[in-house]
Amino acid sequence: MGAFKSIGFQELILLNRETKKEFIQRKAGGLQRYQYEEEAPQLKWELLQGDSTIAGYQCQKAKTRLFGRDYIAWYAPDVELPYGPYKFYGLAGLIFKVQDTQNNFVFTLIGLQKVKSYTPIYMYDKSAVTKSTRKTVRQMYKNYCADPIKALTGDGSITVSADVAATVNAKPYNPIELE
Minimal CA–CA distance to 171: which of 33, 28, 67? Predict the structure, then answer.
């Protein structure tokens, strides 16, 4: 049960740059991994005054809105990659830090290094995931937060004793995507 208590938001995101579609594989609490596909969000960035040094790189500031939250990002024009963490992309440099304005979610790059060889990115095999939709996966995560034990035992394949179940409380529901 200790391991189960730590399971929460786990997500793999693969962006197809040509089609602008994202493939998302996510655990929504519980043990099963789900997969869905959606259009990549079209972020509208507003460049702001202000800069910062992050991981030794001079970064500029910008803001955007994504799935109901406002975010501030710092990006390095010297690193000519228009990408960042999670679903953030589209600035004139690599995003080194992004956080929502309520400080609930903060992503910070801590360093860069050159690699000597190509390392492919793998998604879980189709047999290891259940196809779903964003809406369904979000609802499952909400249900998991409200009742983690029910999320684990709901299909009847796992049982948890009453004394162990009594030690597991609801989790705060504060999803990164509000919309």
Answer: 28
